[in-house]
Amino acid sequence: MKKSPFKRLIKLLLRQQLVVVLLAEFACVESFLERPLTTHFRNSNISTKRRFNFAIDGWVQDQDGEWEWEEDDPNYQASTSVVIQASATPQLPSGTYRPKQSLGQNYLKDPNTVAKIVRAFHQDASRYQPTVEEIVELGPGAGALTDKLVEVYGASRLHCIEIDERSIQLLEQKHPTLKITHADVLQVDYSDMAIERPLVVIGNLPYYITSQILFALADAAHVGAVSSATVTMQWEVGQRMVAKPKTKDYGILSVVFQLYADVVCHFKIPPTVFYPKPAVDSALIGLHFYSPSLLRERLQGVAPVQLRRVVTTAFQQRRKTLRNSLKKLCQQEGVELSEEWAVQRPEELTPEDFVALTKSIFGTQSEMQLGKKVWRKLKHGSNN
């Protein structure tokens, strides 16, 4: 079969072990650029040493190391892994609508990734509820997720929270009956929104306030306002949430969310599916929050505000023993750590250990009412 000059060019470049990402706006290659890079080869006979980290979708390497167009292979079968059908990539009004760096906006542009996210969201949201109701989308932006959610669930079940007025105007034009709140997602009272049942949350989170949003959702879980969240975030942040003790990624996020929820890392998301393209990979994380009654059992009566003091103070000096890192806190409370606790380091303790440690420091004083704002500060920033 005679190949086109374009295919021959790509084949030549790949033979030299180069992966080329063409960034152009020509209509003739637009559909090619919309395809995400795959992270594996479909041909399992390729030697591991000869595999690259990435390949251009549609090209495979044979046993001799030669590259060929996948559809030329008689054994080729198209992938049918996406259950929810992908819709067209949303088009932005030319010259009038661009992502704002000040808001950390990176819009999803790949319809297949959008479909995968919505499918994972349905799994998370339906875990504790027979039907998916009271959906809250955080920062819909250009509406890639919104369009798919409306298509699958209908506009009446969806409530969007957006701070960018341009996004609101765009969404109102496309979905006139959609409920949209013009607000900062960090200043919303989620308990006021959860009128009949807990909320199920979905969102493509801005990198610079990811932890603040997560902590706001944890606070909402205190009072049963949120039952699940399916959110994108920087890959490194997602790894911290699922990290185990005695690993470099283990920290405050690990302790808090492994106490408050069952945390699942669904999949890695490459930068190529966003506009503008970020410099890092992203992760889709699923959070299945425990009910308030079960959360109280897991915390053993320990007040979250006291748990926060212990966890954040300890991890400020994660390499030091608790004898040193909690010295000032223990002096303030007039207690002395037992030798069993004193010789350990924060990164060695399990989330359950931190609960027991907090109880050993504060005792019965730790029996306090759950508050609405414990883990998240009123302003954006660190949670020390």
Polypeptide structure, described:
The protein is globular, with a radius of gyration of 24 Å. Strands 6-5-4-7-8-11-9 form a seven-stranded mixed beta sheet, with helices on both faces. β5 (158-162), α5 (165-174) and β6 (179-182) form a beta-alpha-beta unit. The chain contains 15 helices and eleven strands. Mean pLDDT is 77; it is low at 17-96 and 378-384. With 384 residues, the protein is α/β, with parallel strands linked by helices. The protein has helices at 5-15, 30-33, 111-125, 144-153, 165-174, 190-193, 210-222, 235-241, 252-260, 292-299, 304-315, 322-325, 327-333, 339-342, 351-362, and strands at 59-61, 67-69, 107-108, 135-138, 158-162, 179-182, 199-204, 226-234, 261-269, 274-275, 282-289. It folds into three domains: 5-69, no CATH class; 101-293, Rossmann fold; 302-366, Orthogonal Bundle (Helicase, Ruva Protein, domain 3), CATH 1.10.8.
CATH class of the largest domain: Alpha Beta
Tally of helical runs: 15
Strand content: 5-15%
Biggest sheet: strands side by side, in what order?
6-5-4-7-8-11-9
Q: What CATH architecture of the largest domain do you see?
A: 3-Layer(aba) Sandwich
Arithmetic mean of pLDDT: 77
Whole-number total of structural domains: 3
User: What does the radius of gyration come to?
Assistant: 24 Å
Would you count the extended β strands for me?
11
Shape: globular
Sheet with the most strands? 7 strands, mixed
Q: What string, H for helix and E for strand, traces the elements in order?
A: HHEEEHEHEHEHEHEHHEEEHHHHHH
Question: What share of residues is helical?
Answer: 25-40%
CATH superfamily label of the largest domain: Vaccinia Virus protein VP39
| CATH fold naming of the largest domain | Rossmann fold
Q: What's the end-to-end separation, in Å?
A: 64 Å
**Low-confidence runs:** 17-96, 378-384
Helix and strand content put the structural class at alpha/beta
